[in-house]
């Protein structure tokens, strides 16, 4: 059975490899803004879950045509802070504004997960869920924020920070699942796999 990750995230890929799974990566290319616009007043958890499902479903046909037995996992992360849902800033100026808002404050990092089961080339199961983790941010000096933005790291990650990279220097602590903050909750993914009849140990690479 193959574990297919519907994400281009290096952090999610590295997390899975460290946890014993060597996934196949199939990038979804989903228009996240269009998916979000199609929803009617979603809660934060509903939004990230819908985006995760859209990503998994976007690669399902390709996976089903090449993999007889597989699980497809889609994820989406956003930071909820100050009543806003923040995704990837993409531009330095946006990242700068995000850090001005986040510094010295706390936010909730939400990660939606969708697991689709493929058997004999057909979709046979689906499980969707989300994980919320509180992140407490430090108050970096303006020069530190500028140096961090200059690395490019915060531009393509939800909330303009990473826990497992340079951004970790500016996180005072978290309340909840650290793997979810990195981009894929290991305990939640294990539970969702169980719901579609798959044990995570059967997906581990040989020791």
What does this structure look like?
There is one protein chain. The protein is an alpha/beta fold and 207 residues long. It contains 7 helices and 7 strands. It has helices spanning 10-18, 32-37, 44-66, 92-102, 142-150, 178-182, 186-195, and strands at residues 2-5, 24-25, 69-81, 84-86, 106-119, 122-137, 171-175. Strands 1, 2, 3, 4, 5, 6 and 7 form a 7-stranded mixed sheet that branches. Helix 1 links the parallel strand 1 and strand 2 (24-25). The two termini are 16 Å apart. The mean pLDDT is 95.
The helix content is 25-40%
Radius of gyration: 17 Å
Spans where pLDDT lies below 50 across 5 or more residues: none
| Fraction in beta strands | 25-35%
Number of strands: 7
Features:
single chain, about 210 residues, alpha/beta, 7-stranded mixed β-sheet, 7 helices, about 30% strand
Architecture blueprint of SSEs:
Layout: E1 2-5, H1 10-18, E2 24-25, H2 32-37, H3 44-66, E3 69-81, E4 84-86, H4 92-102, E5 106-119, E6 122-137, H5 142-150, E7 171-175, H6 178-182, H7 186-195
Parallel strand pairs: 1-2, 1-3
Antiparallel strand pairs: 3-4, 3-5, 5-6, 6-7
Helix pairs in contact: 4-5
